[in-house]
């Protein structure tokens, strides 16, 4: 029997492939992404990851058992730690001061994505929130792997590439996939339908997030 995650991945494969091959990620792999685009990206990513960690905490509180609570509370903690370490390095390298970050508003897409995740994880059942969180884990890993395989030598963005193509992150992704499949096996057909909708919406927002950095998106007014 095909698992929930296998079905979701195959149903959204064209969306993933479009995300993997978008100009921002190709230029990142080649090491030719304009610094101002990466600067925009890391500022928004730091804002996003804080919201993502809060969403993980919501899901942890709704876990069906103690192992779920531990898994996702720990994931929230690790998200904050990784965000601080990765972005502190890149903020310094790309000239982003603490004041620059604090004064930078969430972009339209970042605001939408964070608001969607937090609302879903806070208001929807555990399984639906978990499905909404999975694309950030899974798509990031697969995009990171693809970039790593084709990355130019002496790439100035190598730390980002190594983080999301590394074994530690991959193991965390596998653990989330396993938990979601275990949970989905005990869900009703209606819950499964809601989970697929939540997964797809987040997968769409993943593409939109990178696209917004590529366009240096700002609020129109």
Overview of the molecule:
With 221 residues, the chain is mostly helical. The chain has a single domain (4-213), classed as Heme Oxygenase, Chain A (Up-down Bundle), CATH 1.20.910. It has 11 helices and no strands. The mean pLDDT is 94. It catalyses: thiamine + H2O = 5-(2-hydroxyethyl)-4-methylthiazole + 4-amino-5-hydroxymethyl-2-methylpyrimidine + H(+); 4-amino-5-aminomethyl-2-methylpyrimidine + H2O = 4-amino-5-hydroxymethyl-2-methylpyrimidine + NH4(+).
Describe the secondary-structure layout:
Elements: H1 4-11, H2 13-20, H3 23-30, H4 35-61, H5 66-93, H6 98-103, H7 108-123, H8 126-150, H9 158-165, H10 167-184, H11 189-214
Helix pairs in contact: 2-11, 3-8, 4-5, 4-7, 4-8, 4-11, 7-8, 7-11, 8-9, 8-10, 8-11
Domain Thiaminase-2/PQQC: 23-213
GO biological process, one term: thiamine biosynthetic process
GO molecular function: thiaminase activity
What does the largest sheet look like? none
Q: Helix/strand-derived class?
A: mainly alpha
How many domains in all? 1
Helix content: over 70%
Average pLDDT: 94
User: What is the first-to-last residue Cα distance?
Assistant: 51 Å
Q: Outline, from the CA principal axes?
A: globular
> Can you name the CATH architecture?
Up-down Bundle
Could you name the CATH topology? Heme Oxygenase, Chain A
